[in-house]
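Subject: for your reference before the review

Hello V.,

The reviewers asked for a structural picture of the protein, and I figured it would be easier to keep everything in one thread rather than splitting it across files. Below is the amino acid sequence we used in the manuscript, unchanged from the supplementary table.
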Amino acid sequence: MKRIAIIGGGISGLAVLHYLKQRLGDSAQITLFEREASAGGTIRSFRNDSCLFEWGPNGFLDNQPATLQLIKEMGAANQLITTNPTARRYYIQIKGNLHTVPMGVLEFIRTPLLPLRDKWSLIIGLLKMNISKDCSIDDYVSRRFSPSIARSLIDPFINGICAGDIKRLHMASAFPKLKPKGFKRSHMRSFKKGMGQIIEALNKRYQKHIQTNWEITTIPSLFDAVIVATPAYAAAKIVENLNPILAQTLTQIPYVPIAVAGLLFKQNSFKKKPDGFGYLIPSQENKNILGVLIESNVYDGRAGGNEIMVRVMLGGAHHPAIINDGQEKIIGLALKEIDNIYGLAAGPIETFVKLWPQAIPQYEINYPHWRQSIAEQCAKTPGLYLCANYLDGISFNDCIYNAKALAKSLTCYLPNL
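And here is what came back from the structure prediction:
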């Protein structure tokens, strides 16, 4: 019987475990090792009385069949929820004012978010083809559209996706699936009890195969195959003795810090009631705040009937020092932001803070070189596999898709080990 170890219990490791058990059943001994008291990685849903606070991602796009299939296989499809229609209005905050992101032709024509020359640049840019993506996001958008579109439109959305710097992120690596025809229409989805619900389902299904409070510091020799599903900086330490070159490459992948502040208010606490999904802030505004999400608008069950749950994201590539501030200061910054935009007649009734010192990997300009080196070194190290969001996509969907692909590849190769 073959023995397989999975190191790391985030969504990548849990998904690999699911797909390997699906393909191999009891014909292989598979064990997942997680150093924390419970698996899940950054996906955690904290329920406190009437409110729910997401430590990490609050949803996923329903445009990846592998994700929807996994959810169905885990018996959680009936727990899925979609964003409320009233929340499908997004804002960008510029100089203290909220501007609606245009979602249709008429809104695009009327929006004050873009001057006339940028609207024209956007139309012309959509017709441009064969613009190299082997450059930074800033360079790509500036050449295809205009520098101001890069700063005012693309920059805040990158803040919301990966909290990165568009001048340093590699376009082709960050958006490998971008096609001239655009993206398939999709919606944000989550679960009735938060994103942690799918983690709980995976933990429950495979509890006999998961060892928590168990830190692995080097590649164990008792296994035929080892899958390292930890962040790059942790994987570097684990593989260092086995493949120093691989370890050195992994240490070069940067991560940005993020602080997440949750604020629960009574509905009458606001002078102007928050509407829509929330808003993002361009980095040129030079604020510690990346964006504000009105969680109770987005999904049902995030706050009581007369309450509003707000989640504020801070830090990122432009303000990494935020992670060193105390929780009290972070809450203060978040409240000041909310007060400036909506006006506060009363303070929050509950507050939450979660700090992620190394939250999201950054696919920077050198990423193609790092990715090639990782692939070459893994090929030279039989039995070693890597699976995490620093490889081939940072999203929840990417992690599941890549885990499924890895499980298929490994099971095909396993008889040769």
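For the response letter, the relevant points are probably these. The two ends are 12 Å apart (CA to CA). Residues 396-413 form the longest helix (18 residues).

Happy to draft the paragraph if you're swamped.

O.
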